[in-house]
């Protein structure tokens, strides 16, 4: 345990050994089994890496830790369901962030280029002015997300039926 704590490379959030005195395997990401949304994981991983920093000069103090966690807590959660991925995404953004920044985030997370994105909310097309701030976005929830579609033609991959 001492070796894991003192020799942890910068930026890693965990390490484990499969055998006594064996090689330590380091991880910079949360495990696949983590039940936090990818959006929240992307915000919390740097916090964990910095509070678990082995080099005390690089390790965050309480002020930095509380500033970063408060920043996360004060973000707005925008729920977006990507039809292409059949996945619900939780995007954590500041209320003052613009629609342009939000759609850029969707582009990175869902691999749908900005010019191919089409948004729908409550059965109607949702057109966001690029300068519109997140504080005036429609209120979303898990049950009532913004739907993200791609205008790009995608080859349909069907399931093979076996008797």
From TrEMBL:
Keywords: ATP-binding, Cytoplasm, Kinase, Nucleotide-binding, Serine/threonine-protein kinase, Transferase. InterPro entries: IKK, TBK1_ULD. One of its GO terms (cellular component) is cytoplasm. One of its GO terms (molecular function) is ATP binding. The keyword Isomerase does not apply. Residues 75-162 form the TANK binding kinase 1 ubiquitin-like domain. The keyword Transferase applies. Gene3D superfamilies: Phosphatidylinositol 3-kinase Catalytic Subunit, Chain A, domain 1, Transferase(Phosphotransferase) domain 1. It is found in: Cytoplasm. This is Serine/threonine-protein kinase TBK1-like. It comes from Notothenia coriiceps.
């Amino acid at each position: 345990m001492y070796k894991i704590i003192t020799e942890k490379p910068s930026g890693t959030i965990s390490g484990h050994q499969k055998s006594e005195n064996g090689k330590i395997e380091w991880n910079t990401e949360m495990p696949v089994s983590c039940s936090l949304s990818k959006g929240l994981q992307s915000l919390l991983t740097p916090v964990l890496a910095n509070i678990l920093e082995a080099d005390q000069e690089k390790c965050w103090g309480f002020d930095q830790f509380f500033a970063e966690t408060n920043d996360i807590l004060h973000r707005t959660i925008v729920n977006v369901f990507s039809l292409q991925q059949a996945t619900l995404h939780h995007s954590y953004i500041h209320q003052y962030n613009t629609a342009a920044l939000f759609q850029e985030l969707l582009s990175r997370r869902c691999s749908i280029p900005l010019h191919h994105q089409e948004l729908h909310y409550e059965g109607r097309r949702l057109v966001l002015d690029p300068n519109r701030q997140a504080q005036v976005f429609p209120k979303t929830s898990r049950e009532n997300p913004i739907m993200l579609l791609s205008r790009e033609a995608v080859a349909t991959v069907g399931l093979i039926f076996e008797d």
